[in-house]
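This follows on from our talk about sequence and fold. Go ahead and set the record down below:
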Amino acid sequence: MEMNILLFGPNGSGKGTQGAILQQQFNIRHIESGVIFRDNISKNTELGKRAKQYIEKGELVPDHITIPMILDRLKEGDCAKGWLLDGFPRNLNQAQKLDEALKKEGMKLTYVIEIVLERQISKNRIMGRRLCIKDNNHPNNVFIEAIKPLSQEGRIVCRVCGGELKTRSDDQDEIAIDQRHAIYYDKVNGTLAAVNYFKDKAKDAAPEFKFIGIDGKPGVKEVSKDLFEKLKK
């Protein structure tokens, strides 16, 4: 069965992690909108050339370029069994236009998934991330109890191996984090307006797809368990 998914969630919600789990579980392609832009520009496609002109001027790429670029990617052979689109749409207008474009191409959405997390918790999770210098796969976060670093002689160390921890500079850039979150949490002009568009459509008497809301506060395993239980219903 083909499975086509839109995945929403703020930076810091674990959206990328859950997307990777869904990809593996259902053998579908995880499509990130940012990667589509980079691929089209690097391959010098017609759409990529047009997008580059806007990017070089520091302007947003218009929807009439972005949406065809996304559709072209979703039509590729590796998406035949389904896809999970992450990072688009980002506002109400994009949600409406993407919905129309998918219908025109005969592509049916199966699920729209929203990982729900309060803005301050999302910010804390980003700023609380710590990287182990021995192994980046050792999860440490000062704001998440389950993966909190160990305290040793007045300093914090990796909870897995006791190694030294460091921070990523972009994780500590409050201005950039606030700007991204301002776009996401805006219910009028931002991403939550797009989320609510699909949420309202799923309330129809005969909905075209299922809308699933997931609490992002628990740990990765608990969130995944909740998600898969709701996918089965």
Remarks:
- The chain has two domains: 3-119+174-232, 129-166.
- The beta strands are 3-8, 29-32, 82-86, 111-116, 129-132, 140-141, 150-152, 155-157, 165-166, 210-215.
- The chain has a mean pLDDT of 93.
- The CA atoms of residues 100 and 106 lie 10 Å apart.
